[in-house]
Write a structure and sequence with these properties.
Four copies of one chain form a homotetramer. The first copy, chain A, has 233 residues and is an alpha+beta fold. Chain A has three domains: 143 residues, Gyrase A, domain 2, CATH 3.30.1360; 52 residues, no CATH class; 27 residues, no CATH class. Chain A has twelve helices and four strands. The longest helix of chain A is centred in the middle third of the chain and has 23 residues. The first copy, chain A, is flat. The N and C termini of chain A lie far apart (51 Å). Chains in contact: A-B, A-C, A-D, B-C, B-D, C-D.
């Protein structure tokens, strides 16, 4: 089961973003700005930056998460977000004596397949352990382990990339496991930066339409939107 | 079996690097430099840039490879090089009817384990196919597939990052499969850019020592080197 | 005067993008895909990728430009696009005996200010030359040179970042000199990749609305669009 | 005069780095690691990571600086470090009524040139102000301002990139103003992360030799080192 803990982050993240933003168009120093910004001013600045797409200042704050209980399927997808830092538990150096794995609901929902799945996954792990005992290195024995195998990692991502990654990974087109992961990430961010956390949303919320071929229904596609606009004339 | 084909690259890569390098300290235009550089001058410039570590100009040329026959173990390691572009065959959208997989030599060398390994991997793929037939989506059925499963991808990397990635991945501390992959990559580069290809080497060649705890023997560790220097006095 | 020459690029860029895109969802090899794609198929793929925002495959092709005749104002803005490679003529190592500089039209249009501007810029360069003669290093003498001073550089950018940079820098909110620079860049790309070149447009064309506070008139702002949609109901 | 204030940073940076590093080769969770690491263990881990060049874990902590009193010469050099985030005071949106500028010591040391320099810089700023009054936009009037003009910015850089940037910018081959800037940055980091701060050093300290053509004397060049090793045999 996915487990996400925010282990560290830039302190006072929203104030830091707002102060950095003000430096660009102000003759006053960042230190002074940081002190003088009222919570209300921070609030208005954050909202204006988001609506106008001036996102570079969101890079000044970053969040470090301990992530556990995700499959290697999902860690392989996750690390494709290149503007972030990852330290992952190594299957080369850590022998997985205790074995946890993920089971998709589409499999566990069908008892006959769930049973076969569990049996297969356990048999693979059993062979893995036997190969370790026979002196085969962990880095090679792991070739028999399934994609389902759980992994853990530490991930640091700045707020701009969090907004971007969530825009893709909270979209229902993403796979269920990574959607779930980013829902946990969003919940952790909301605890310490509620305005920013509220902005971690699928891309359609920012665009005002769905840019996929078919919409999930939250927003119309761009073609549907254009059509509606026409009819409005 | 790993198969690497260089499908595209910046034309005349070494001349392009040399011309870009000369722009920095020359009052002449890049277009003129590109035309006037003799092969001999290109050669000397490339060597000087490499020895002095002025590697930023190597970013101006890039190489696009079609990579096949590597395991998901290795693709997961490969995509950790973030300064490159990857398009990987999706296990979500492509149903792997025909199944190829990698077998480490430490397993195939021991017939009793090799047999068990092949049997297990095929059983996992067999269950995968049956789950597909039962209507389980490919993106979920694949959780049962082993790390050994073959994947293919297109990778574009610039010459600076190639030098860096090879410095790590041609080191004998890297896992055999990714060492093999980068040996193929190096061979492809050497065909079209021999000087650059020759520079794709483990990091110890550039450092002049091994910075790992224990050396493979090609170069002494830094501690051993300091020791030798002392005795030389 | 800004002068841009495309000195190198990934050969057959649109076919390369299309082949890479197909790898993701196809059981066929990249090499085979590259050979078999008809021009018509390439055309349709490129258009579909662009409309659905699947832009990562555009990273597989890159373009190298020799850029001359831009001010240091503009080069300072340009290098803020971090996902690109730059080699710039150094004011540390190159003594600017021959001095060229940029004059904004808002200044040259007013003869009285134009004259004062030229006089001041030339006086600054004159002092620069005298300081060089007096043995002051070029890297320090240049502190007196104006922002207007011309510079030259070699820039390599992949197609995805070109789309992004043009979306910002062809917007009329950008400064006139960098707009002009990217118009030249677009013109160079169009010569070798017409479909891609045609897509190098201000961000409003992709969004379908203007996300700035005030629109230049090409597209309505998002607020205006929402308003129109409402009235359409 | 350069002024650097560390306005924010990942709390407890060295412990965070050490915990992340341990995740890679440990079966224990990051949260548990973070709690249990003794200061002594943190110390040993940080030193081992640095000496073996395993620097990716240093990306998990970042530092945000308010930087003031540097010239546009130096800000142009600074933003070339692409793996960092910058928000700079805009010369487009901020009219520089109050004008500060940098004077290189090689100029101020020679009174006759110092006087001419100050006169020229002030004359340029005077013309700038008059052009503003005449209705020329600030973004264009600034073309007459010198490279010497002071700027301010907020910069966020992670510890890995800080190590890299310092390795280049604390080298005596860098220009005096950016050396001074990074000395201030180092001093700020040392206050909150003394082990890490101590590691912010010119590249020769890490390499064990100077990789430039000529050494400043701290370390021998690689050629000189090889020569010494030979004689030691």
């Amino acid at each position: 089961m996915v487990n996400v803990v925010l282990i560290s982050h830039t302190p006072d993240p929203e104030r830091t973003i707002a102060a950095a933003a003000r430096v660009s168009a102000s003759p006053v120093s960042a230190v002074e700005l940081l002190e003088k910004l009222t919570p209300d001013r921070v609030d208005r600045l954050i909202r204006r930056l988001l609506s106008s797409g001036h996102l570079s200042v969101f890079e000044h704050v970053s969040f470090t998460f301990a992530i556990e209980g995700i499959s290697r399927v999902t860690s392989h997808q996750l690390v494709r977000h290149r503007l972030a830092s990852y330290t992952q538990q190594s299957q080369r150096y850590v022998s997985l004596k205790e074995f946890n794995y993920i089971t998709p609901a589409t499999i566990s929902d069908k008892p006959e397949w769930g049973d076969k799945y569990h049996e297969m996954v356990r048999a693979a792990h059993d062979l893995y352990l036997k190969m370790l005992d026979a002196g085969i290195p962990a880095e090679d024995a792991r070739y028999v382990l399934p994609n389902a195998a759980e992994t853990r990692l530490v991930m640091t991502m700045n707020a701009r990339e969090l907004i971007h990654a969530c825009s893709l990974r909270l979209c229902l087109r993403a796979q269920w496991e990574i959607v779930e992961l980013f829902e946990h990430i969003k919940a952790e961010v909301e605890k310490v930066a509620p305005r920013l956390g509220a902005e971690l949303k699928p891309k359609c919320y920012r665009l005002g339409y769905c840019d996929e071929v078919q919409s999930c229904g939250i927003f119309p596609t761009r073609a549907e939107l254009a059509d509606k606009g026409e009819r409005g004339k």
